[in-house]
Amino acid sequence: MRCKTWAALLLTIALLAPAVAAQAGNHDFILVNQTGLAMDKVYVVPPKATTWDADQLKRDLLLPGEEAKIGFSRKDGECLWDLVVVDSTGTEVTWEDVDLCKGKRVLLRLEEDVPEAHYE
C-alpha cells in the first residue's frame, strides 16, 4: 500500500511539473518592428541595465514591418523591462520600461526619433 501511495505522488508531481514551470517564467511575446530600422539584435534587460546577455532575436534581421517571436523568461510579477535594439549599422536604441504584462504583441516605433512601445 505504501508503495502505491508513493507511486501516485510521484506521478502527480511529474504531471504537474511542466504546468508549474511554464507558469513560473515563460512569457514569450511577439515583437513587431515598426521602427523603420533593420533590427540585427534584440536584448531584453532589467530596467537601466548597462550590460546584457544573449540576443533574443534568434534570426539574421528583423526588417521594418516584420514580426518575430521573442522567447523570454521572467518571474511572475516582473513587468517592466528595457528592450535594447541594435540595428544593421550597429546603432543601439533603447525602449525603457516596456511593460511586457500589457499584451502579447509589442509594437516598437520611433516617433520623431523617440522610442515608443505600443501593445496589443
Task: For this entry, give a set of tags.
120 residues, alpha+beta, Immunoglobulin-like, globular
Give structural notes:
The protein has 120 residues and is of the alpha+beta class. It has a single domain (25-119), classed as Sandwich (Immunoglobulin-like). 20% of the residues lie in helices and 38% in strands. It is built from 1 helix and 7 strands, in the order αβββββββ. It has one helix at 2-25; strands at residues 29-34, 39-45, 67-70, 80-87, 92-99, 105-111, 114-119. The strands form 2 sheets. It has a 4-stranded mixed β-sheet, with no helix packed on it. Strands 2-4-5 form a 3-stranded antiparallel β-sheet, with no helix packed on it. The longest helix is centred in the N-terminal third of the chain and has 24 residues, at 2-25.
Helix/strand structural class: alpha+beta
- The CATH topology comes to Immunoglobulin-like
Spell out the helices and strands N to C: HEEEEEEE
Sheet with most strands:
4 strands, mixed
Stretches where pLDDT is under 50 for at least 5 consecutive residues are 6-24
Q: At CATH's second level, what is the architecture?
A: Sandwich
Total of DSSP H or I helical runs spanning 4+ residues: 1
> Per DSSP, what share of the residues sits in E-state strands of 2 or more residues?
35-45%
Give the domain tally: 1
Set out the fold topology.
Elements: H1 2-25, E1 29-34, E2 39-45, E3 67-70, E4 80-87, E5 92-99, E6 105-111, E7 114-119
Parallel strand pairs: 1-6
Antiparallel strand pairs: 1-3, 2-4, 4-5, 6-7
